[in-house]
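Tutorial handout. Part one gives the primary structure; part two gives the three-dimensional structure as tokens.
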Amino acid sequence: MRSLLFVPGDDSRKLEKALTSGADALILDLEDSVAPDAKAMARQTCLDFLQSTIPEDGRPALYVRINALDNGLSDSDLDSVMTAGPDGIVLPKATSGSDISLLDARIAVREALHELDDGRTRIIAIATETAASIFGLGSYAGASLRLAGLTWGGEDLAADIGAAANKDGDGMWTRPFQLARSLCLFGAVAAGVTPIDTVFTDFRDLDGLRREASDAARDGFCGKLAIHPQQVAVINEVFTPSPEAIAEARRIVDAFRRAGDPGVVGLNGRMLDRPHLVAAQRTLNRAGLAD
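Part two.
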């Protein structure tokens, strides 16, 4: 998934409009974008939307961001939306792999209750929203087969550590947030799941979004969260490998195959080793062209 668009879970008009955004996934939000006194209504709105949209062909993936595990709302969220069988759950304020294991168990109970295939519901964790969570980013490997991705967040983290800002005057992440971003990337890859970059909050600044998304793609992230439909096209473009990158990846993979899958091959005057092959295979995976 290249683009994952947050949509307020209590706004049926925005939910319907989001279906035409081109996003690879919609994240129906029951957490930050919903006021405390609107949570029950948002659950019903999300459930109605899921039930009407899931049977449609060609729809985006449908995830639901529930409330954090420790605030008493997440069980009610799951009781409601799991009735419809969403594609996945987004867990905010995850602190470690143990939170994913706990959520896995809670999802499994509801899959059984609603006669859904065991293990069908995936999990994406927002894994850097508290200071404590930074120290758990190496713990997600093996936490659950449901875990599909890790992403990070700079807004809640800034509030938790008391930062006056999370970006400098040039719009670049300050050092604490650069660290959180990097550790999320490493933690996701170590866990064998998709690393997803965080939101770009100024939805009118598409040039800034393109710069930040391009930096993320360069560094190894495979997609990016969005907060406005206008951001989706830029994100999709940045995280779709170019025809030139695909052609080069094919040449590298083919060179290793023709040579009998050795440790090193020569290609156009360059010596390529296994990391080059892995990078090429990832490019083809991102393009949906893996063998």
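Part three, for discussion. The chain has two domains: 3-238, 243-286. The first strand starts at residue 3 and ends at 8.
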